[in-house]
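ligand=zinc ion
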Amino acid sequence: MSVPGHKHQKQHSKMVRAVLRDIANQLQHPYQEIHHRFTQGDDDQITSLFWELFYKRYAEHDALNDVYYCPGCRSFILETYVP
Ligand SMILES: [Zn+2]
């Protein structure tokens, strides 16, 4: 179910999924398992590998440093978190 007036940048989800595929290839685990571990959160190995491979693939997007998953839309959102 998606919320009206609630939009995601499709590009963000494509970027995140590409990195999850990189992780799956590197660890030689199925993509679905990596996706599950990533979206359930709190998996330190996957999270740190995600950012390492994200910046390798998208060096020009080094301002982005936060990611979350919208289960309603099955979309990923990338943001810049400023503490
Ligand atoms: Zn959403």
